[in-house]
């Protein structure tokens, strides 16, 4: 634990070591093999029981995917030779990245909640509302299962799929030209967490999530939330980090909305679109002041 | 309780166990949001004994059980939204020294918590009041805050003749909405929909809306783009009477309907909604006398909280605290 402290992201190791480690272990049988120096897989052990398929079947399934992948690759090559990237980002215009208007648009999102791994009783669902918009609903419950392992519960989360290139290669969103994220939502008065994941290459960067709050007014009217990227702060595994920096907008992998406000009951968030905007008048790079602290006092 | 513990033994052993036990039961006693209680819990620990004397002790958690215990206490404060004060800092420094891990945790909390305390654009008192009438007023004010001209009126159903429920009705309507309602065609029905739920911190309030289906947008007359026989020269042209003008839609005209008014009533019953409509009619919306009004429990705006004529169901504590139950 203390060596991890010197390696990098320390506070969760220090502040609630009990909570975090206990949450990461999904199966009691694996308790002996908690690795403190490195992380075994990006899912924190949650997909350990994923079924393993025989190699022949994997090859057969992989060949089926080949056709689509080659088509993607062809498009990429064409785009490369056309060499016509967007260069003009007009201020005041919202470029919509995710529009929730048909069932196909919902397939690019994954919902998770603590009941997925028997770590709580919250449930959630992303569907289309009667008005044809995305609807993130569910019930939040902070009740913990009495298994002596889970200390806290109560989250529902929706997360976009990671962008990728052909042949299942990972890609990133490049949002460096934008300054704001714009959401058109209709909520229920609760506040939600807005997460932008910038999953890095090394294991200490796997859980880098930049977070800010999304407040909703509630009521029958739609609201337009325009949040500057400079306000997002770095968290890792739910802990605000000591060493902060502005979000690297060329390394964005996912975006998510989480309901975790510790209020038991149903929640209801309707989403029209999530977009990006370039506002040249917004000069702030990072909203949080960075004090120089005495040596070795905060995250090294 | 803490005083009893302090006076029990001069050696005062078992701090950690005592603090953990106290933390577990704080919510039962209703003191989980009380800063003074947390401070007096920390005060149980002896001063000076846990201060490290060299760098190795400082970095390797001198007295780890005690430090972790206080870190957990601070964590619980954080979870309950209790912000520490400078007195707690001096207390922690006296117990664990300047480099103690609880002190570091305190500094982190004092860096971040004030930053997020007041960022909500719709601020609410903390804790929100228990009175359902105050809650309803706050909720309606919050919902209608996007139109600054909105007037919030409180009607008493008992003032109307033949009303069954004697309850209050908090209603919000802006002049724009009144104009929209006046302009509404008298043969097209409008709907009273609800109840929808709005959360004010831990309390939820049920509200109802008066809504009409969206007005169809005027379509431009069909024109043949390939026909060049009738080219317009727009230099000396005055706006012709054939051109259609349209008011820009107000915030109340959304794609899923026009909202004429919002209300919350004390009983959330159908009779109180009827009283609401009659109050609105008496309050300058004369068109309501002629427009057919449908009371629906379904809405395209989203999921509704089922209501019965006896008032709210009492399955959820939060909801019942939000709206009064009918004393039936």
Give a brief description.
The complex is a heterodimer of chains A (300) and B (328). Chain A has 300 residues and is of the alpha+beta class.
Q: How would you describe this structure to a colleague?
A:
The complex is a heterodimer of chains A (300) and B (328). Chain A is α+β, with helices and mostly antiparallel strands and 300 residues long. Helices cover 17% and strands 29% of the residues of chain A. Chain A has helices at 2-7, 11-15, 17-24, 55-82, 103-106, and strands at residues 94-99, 109-113, 123-128, 134-140, 156-160, 164-165, 169-170, 180-186, 191-197, 208-215, 223-228, 233-236, 239-240, 254-259, 265-277. Chain B is an alpha+beta fold and 328 residues long. Chain B is 36% helix and 15% strand. In chain B, a hairpin with a 2-residue loop joins strand 3 and strand 4 (203-212). Chains A and B meet through helix 2, helix 3 and strand 15 of A and helix 5, helix 7, helix 8, strand 3 and strand 4 of B.
Quaternary structure = heterodimer
What pattern of helices and strands is seen along the backbone of chain A? HHHHEHEEEEEEEEEEEEEE
- Count helical runs of chain B: 11
The interface involving the most residues is between: A-B, 42 and 51 residues
**Separation, N- and C-terminal Cα atoms of chain B:** 42 Å
Principal-axis shape of chain B? elongated
- The average pLDDT of chain B is 83
- Global Rg of chain B: 30 Å
Structural class of chain A: alpha+beta
Biased composition (Basic and acidic residues) (chain B): 314-328
InterPro entries (chain B): ECIST_C, ECSIT, ECSIT_N, TPR-like_helical_dom_sf
Keywords (chain B): Cytoplasm, Immunity, Innate immunity, Mitochondrion, Nucleus, Transit peptide
Family (chain B): Belongs to the ECSIT family.
């Amino acid at each position: 634990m203390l060596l991890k402290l010197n390696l990098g992201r320390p506070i969760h190791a220090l502040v609630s070591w009990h909570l975090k480690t206990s949450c990461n272990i999904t199966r009691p049988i694996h308790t002996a093999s908690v690795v403190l120096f490195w992380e075994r897989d990006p899912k924190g052990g949650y997909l350990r029981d994923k079924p393993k398929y025989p190699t022949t079947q994997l090859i057969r399934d992989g060949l089926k995917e080949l056709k689509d992948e080659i088509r993607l690759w062809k498009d990429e090559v064409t785009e490369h030779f056309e060499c016509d990237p967007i260069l003009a980002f007009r201020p005041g215009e919202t470029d919509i990245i995710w529009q929730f208007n048909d069932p196909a648009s919902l397939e690019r999102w994954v919902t998770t909640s603590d009941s997925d791994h028997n770590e709580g009783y919250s449930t959630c669902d992303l569907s289309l509302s009667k008005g044809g918009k995305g609807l993130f609903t569910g019930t939040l419950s902070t009740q913990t299962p009495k298994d002596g392992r889970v200390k806290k519960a109560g989250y529902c989360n929706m997360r976009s799929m990671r962008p990728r290139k052909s042949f299942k290669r990972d890609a990133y969103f490049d949002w460096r030209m934008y300054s704001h994220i714009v959401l058109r939502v209709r909520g229920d008065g609760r506040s939600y967490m807005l997460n932008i994941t910038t999953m890095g290459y090394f294991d200490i960067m796997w859980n880098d999530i930049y977070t800010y709050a999304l407040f909703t007014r509630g009521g029958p009217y739609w609201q337009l939330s325009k949040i500057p990227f400079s306000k997002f702060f770095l968290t890792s595994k739910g802990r605000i980090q000591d060493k902060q920096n502005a979000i690297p907008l060329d390394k964005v992998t996912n975006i998510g909305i989480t309901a975790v406000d510790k209020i038991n009951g149903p929640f209801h968030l309707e989403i029209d679109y999530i977009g990006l905007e370039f506002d040249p008048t917004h000069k702030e790079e990072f909203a949080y002041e960075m004090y120089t602290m005495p040596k070795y006092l905060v995250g090294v | 309780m803490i005083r009893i513990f302090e006076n029990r033994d001069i050696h005062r052993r078992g701090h950690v166990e005592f603090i953990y036990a106290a933390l577990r039961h704080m919510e039962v006693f209703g003191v989980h949001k009380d800063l003074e209680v947390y401070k007096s819990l920390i005060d149980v620990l002896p001063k000076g004994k846990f201060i490290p004397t060299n760098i190795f002790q400082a970095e390797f958690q001198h007295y780890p059980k005690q430090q972790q215990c206080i870190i957990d206490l601070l964590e619980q404060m954080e979870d309950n939204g209790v912000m520490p004060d400078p007195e707690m800092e001096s207390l922690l420094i006296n117990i664990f020294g300047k480099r103690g891990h609880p002190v570091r945790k305190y500094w982190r909390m004092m860096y971040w918590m004030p930053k997020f305390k007041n960022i909500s654009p719709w601020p609410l008192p903390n804790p929100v009041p228990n009175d359902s009438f105050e809650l309803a007023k706050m909720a309606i004010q919050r919902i209608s805050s996007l139109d600054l001209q909105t007037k919030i009126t409180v009607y008493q159903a008992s003032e109307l003749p033949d009303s069954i429920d004697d309850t209050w009705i908090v209603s919000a309507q802006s002049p724009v909405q009144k104009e929209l309602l006046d302009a509404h065609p008298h043969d097209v029905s409008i709907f009273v929909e609800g109840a929808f739920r709005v959360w004010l911190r831990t309390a939820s309030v049920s509200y109802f809306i008066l809504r009409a289906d969206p007005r169809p947008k005027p379509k431009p007359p069909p024109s043949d783009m390939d026909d060049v026989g009738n080219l317009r020269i727009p230099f000396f042209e005055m706006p012709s009477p054939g051109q259609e003008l349209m008011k820009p839609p107000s915030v109340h005209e959304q794609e899923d309907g026009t909202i004429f008014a919002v209300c919350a009533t004390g009983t959330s019953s159908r009779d109180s909604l009827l009283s609401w409509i009659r109050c609105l009619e008496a309050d300058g919306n004369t068109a309501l006398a002629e427009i057919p009004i449908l009371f629906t429990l379904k809405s395209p705006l989203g999921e509704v909280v089922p209501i019965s004529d006896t008032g709210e169901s009492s399955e959820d504590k939060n909801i019942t605290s939000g709206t009064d139950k009918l004393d039936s």
